[in-house]
Amino acid sequence: MPSEGKYNIKAVSKMLGIQAGTLRAWERRYSIVKPNRNEAGHRLYTDEQVYILKWLVSKVNQGFTISQAVDVAQNGELYKEVAPFSIENTDRAAEMGNLILEALLSFQEKKANDLLSQAFSMYNLEKVIIDILGTLLVRVGHLWEEQKITVAHEHFTSSFLRSKIGQLIQWLPSDPYLPKVIAACGVDEEHELGLLMFTLFLRRKGFEVIYLGHGIPKRDFEVVMKEVEPKMVFFSCTIAENSKKTLEWANSLKKEFPNTAIGVGGAAINHISSETQEKYKSFLIGNTKLEWDDWIAQKLKNQ
Q1: Closest C-alpha to 179, from 236, 222, 229
Q2: Burial 173-206, CB ≥16 within 10 A → b, else e
Q3: pLDDT tens, residue by residue, 189-212
Q4: Confidence of residue 183 (pLDDT cuts 50, 70, 90)
Q5: End-to-end CA distance of the chain
């Protein structure tokens, strides 16, 4: 579900303390924020777009020109600035997550969106994605596994969270000099959390990621590979019984696309046998960011 705008230009102008004409000029000249339009043609800004504009205004207030601020943002600095760590900040983020979860489990989507807007005013984008939304998605999965919530609650809440995480990832800039990457769930996988988190990691590194998610037939996936010609492909597995099937498919794809590096990761990989690990070790990307970095660096070096 695409992100819908909810703030008109007058409201955003008041929030930011700048003229509406300035917002129009920034949109026209720099294209860093392109608000949606309603049926009447009026601009409607999303929470994410307001966050970006707030960041730009803060840079201008620090002495940057708007063009300099945009350049800094497009180089990725917009998403690298982390609020100073403190117990208070951590507790507030946890409390915000609790409130959002409570709203979602009560099917109060508007309240959850309003709380998310507050989170954006308090924290940077990556903290909201990982520490609040990502954490909530894991908690919902555990609640469902423990039969503390119904399938309906799990589906509604997970759908909201996955949608928001996916939308936010799209705001991360990509480096045109880095190769294209395809990210997808493994064979018969439906859980996307691990894939979303790894996609966030790749986008933070500057890679352009074609995110396919789950449910793509093998034949269709191979068609996409031929069209995109990615340098790397990543599969994520959460369910242990799907890991071997995914590794076998990765091996088959490697034979058909020998110049493409193919990696497999996710929680399920921790449960495969040592024999399977040895057989498919070249496909295993590891579990930590350091291991991911090493795997990617090695594959790019060999290409």
Answers
A1: 229
A2: bbeeeebebbbbbbbebebbbbbbbbbbbbbbbe
A3: 887 877 887 888 888 788 999 999
A4: very high
A5: 37
